[in-house]
Specification:
Blueprint lengths: L1 H9 L12 H26 L19 E16 L6 E13 L2 E8 L8 E7 L2 E7 L2 H12 L11 H22 L1
Antiparallel strand pairs: 1-2, 1-4, 2-3, 4-5
Helix pairs in contact: 2-4
Length: 184
């Protein structure tokens, strides 16, 4: 029994060194590698052109935005100094406090610096059920995007992701190995 197994392993009558124990599976594995390689090329090109997948959500169904528009007034600049994580001194973080009113009640929130000035009025959107749930709304950017779409202007293309090129190179390597396994 041992001698038969060793004879199959050696398989000296084979034409190629890859034949032997896996000779009957070699063509199937080659086909699988080639098909996986072709699929990886497709995904790699999509990733290179800016396709992103968000695994943090369980569903990809967009929720309806129930936020209501309002305006807020920028009040105070808040500077926070903290150690730099690179060990090179300290880092200063600038934030602003803003105040807005909903149904006669005032809300005070802190937002990151975006070139604001004291006294500036900004547009926000808040959730009617929880006015503390808000986001800064760039009305001008949305209007400009709507105008550009109306005029048929194209938006800037997405940034190219080099990970996609790496996937394509790996896919070509898999296809090459798969074809070699099928041929031999």
């Amino acid at each position: 029994m041992k001698m038969e197994f060793l004879a199959v392993l050696a398989d000296e009558s084979s034409e190629t060194p890859l034949k032997g124990v896996f000779s009957s599976w070699q063509g199937i594995i080659g086909i699988i590698l080639a098909v996986v390689g072709v699929m990886m090329i497709y995904v790699g090109i999509k990733v290179y052109n800016g396709f992103k997948v968000d695994f943090s959500t369980s569903q990809n169904i967009p929720e309806e935005d129930t936020h209501v528009p309002a305006t807020a007034k920028i009040q105070n600049k808040v500077k926070t100094t903290m150690p730099d994580f690179n060990g090179q001194g300290e880092r200063e973080i600038i934030e602003w406090t803003m105040v807005y009113e909903v149904d006669g009640e005032k809300y005070k929130q802190t937002i990151p610096d975006n070139g604001y000035e004291k006294g500036q009025i900004i547009d926000i959107m808040y959730e009617p059920g929880d006015p503390n749930n808000f986001y800064v709304y760039d009305k001008q950017a949305e209007e400009a995007a709507a105008l550009a779409e109306e005029n048929g202007e194209q938006q800037e293309p997405a940034e190219k992701n080099k990970l996609g090129l790496g996937m394509v190179v790996l896919a070509l390597l898999l296809i090459g190995i798969g074809v070699m396994m099928i041929i031999s």
